[in-house]
Recover the amino acids of this structure.
């Protein structure tokens, strides 16, 4: 399927690994010029080289913390215009809510709510004037099904979803869409960290925790980053212009509700 975005300029935040990298990969396969981002410059440059070889696409690497204004400046100025923005950032670590002090709360909200909003503010008017824009925010399944230990992450991402819900409706007339991807359990480093923490807490081998976690998912497996990236690429496609303000849950059926 031709996604109709060949030659578009895409910025994918926190894309040196995991789900962000998967999104960058699929957008490059679709013919986009892709700006990738990560804090470790050496690692990011290596990933950029790998993506160029895998996709044949034009990949631009911008190292830095996406929460910092100077990194945001560099991301936006790396391309002539931003047609596609994929907001992504690492979430707060698993932690009992009693251990979260004010500084940690401010940091979590800054990284997972304020930063993506700032990036949307930077690109939205240009998208509206050009009559094309696709914004995808990677949040979490915990937005719909909050999990103990991820309270700060859930709160910040729910705040982002609520904040941008009205914005999405205000720009839909200009073929600019804002949507949310809510990953459940995927085979990523963050997933591994969570499993390791649970294994240590329970005093069992991580393999036991992994098997138990997969057994609780109707699909009986963790998701693969490439299938997440494909979903992201479709939401960024020319064909997805009538989908906006939506939260797409990708969790193998783990969430038991219908809404």
């Amino acid at each position: 399927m031709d996604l109709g975005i060949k030659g578009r300029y895409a910025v994918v935040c926190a894309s040196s690994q995991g789900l962000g990298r998967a999104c960058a990969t699929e957008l490059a396969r679709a013919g986009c010029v892709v700006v990738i981002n990560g804090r470790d410059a050496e690692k990011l440059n290596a990933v950029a080289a790998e993506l160029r070889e895998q996709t044949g696409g034009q990949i631009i690497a911008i190292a830095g913390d996406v929460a910092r204004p100077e990194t945001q400046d560099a991301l936006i100025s790396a391309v002539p215009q931003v047609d596609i923005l994929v907001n992504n950032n690492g979430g707060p670590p698993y932690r009992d809510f009693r251990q979260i002090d004010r500084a940690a709360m401010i940091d979590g909200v800054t990284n997972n709510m304020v930063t993506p909003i700032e990036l949307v503010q930077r690109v939205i008017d240009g998208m509206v004037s050009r009559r094309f824009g696709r914004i995808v925010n990677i949040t979490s399944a915990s937005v719909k099904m909050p999990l103990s230990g991820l309270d700060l992450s859930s709160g910040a991402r729910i705040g982002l979803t609520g904040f941008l819900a009205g914005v999405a409706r205000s720009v839909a007339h200009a073929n600019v869409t804002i949507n949310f991807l809510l990953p459940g359990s995927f085979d990523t480093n963050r997933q591994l960290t969570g499993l390791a923490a649970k294994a240590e807490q329970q005093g069992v081998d991580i393999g036991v925790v992994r098997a138990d976690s997969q057994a609780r998912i109707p699909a009986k497996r963790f998701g693969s980053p490439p299938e997440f990236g494909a979903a992201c690429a479709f939401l960024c496609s020319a064909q997805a212009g009538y989908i906006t303000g939506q939260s797409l849950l990708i969790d193998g059926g783990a969430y038991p509700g219908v809404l």
User: Anything to note?
Assistant: The longest helix spans residues 102-130. The chain is about 45% helix and 15% strand.
